[in-house]
Amino acid sequence: MNDYISIGVFIDGGYYAKVNRALKARDRSIIRVSSLFEFICSELAMQEGINISDCQITEAHYFRGRFRVKEAYDKHLLYNERKFEDSLIENDVVFHYKHLREVERDGTTEVLEKGVDVWFALEAYELATFRHFDYVVLITGDADHQMLVRKLKALKIKTILLTWNLTDVDTTSTMLRDEAGQHWEFSQIVDNNPQLRKMLLYKLREPAVSPLGDTF
Predict the structure, then answer these.
(1) Among candidates 135, 119, 125, 120, which has minimal Cα distance to 184?
(2) Rounded CA gap, 95 and 33, in Å?
């Protein structure tokens, strides 16, 4: 049994945004970051048999592609992005952004997000090496992170995959799930615990036509 648990949390912003969009469409809710972090600490404290005060998220990082300021302004995204960033700052989350690009292909506009997944993996591995986390929590469903999990396990760092699958499109990669030491699937966890669901989700007050949540 450890006396103190250090946790590193790494959030795939694209995946996190898909989850929030699905939650918003289904019941006008989004994830409350502070409550999510509290759940992670309390669950691991219980597993390790220690006080929750001795189980700390020592670093949290968020990775996402985003539009340049003029494009974001034209798309009316600036307020929503800033509001979400406020919630990250309030919870000591470090955000990492790369610019998105729009290209025209076959008469349709396609948004390209290049290099974010690689950056996510490199940063997570490098910080895990230097910070010596006891646990790394990955919030993602992308199969590309399978090798990251394998490398973290080689460092003898316990790895948790945290997902929230709300549609068939967002189903977690089987290879990633099998590689992780633990898999917490929130669509199953909260269905069996209405009180936890209420704690984790923030009910939006904005009307359905608001873009709030689309960039979360």
Answers:
(1) 135
(2) 14
Q: Dihedral of CA 24/186/202/214: which sign? A: negative
Q: What is the pLDDT of residue 112?
A: 62
3-state secondary structure of 180: coil
Please tell me the distance from the alpha carbon of residue 126 to that of residue 104, in angstroms, as a whole number: 36
Residue 194 structure tokens: 């209405």
E strands along the chain, which residues? 5-12, 29-31, 55-66, 93-99, 101-105, 108-112, 135-139, 158-163, 182-185, 201-203
Domain range annotation of the chain: 10-141+151-203
Q: What is the pLDDT of residues 76-93, one digit of tens each?
A: 888 888 888 999 999 999
pTM exceeds cut of 0.70: yes
d(CA 12, CA 10) in angstroms, rounded, equals 7
pLDDT value, residue 206:
57
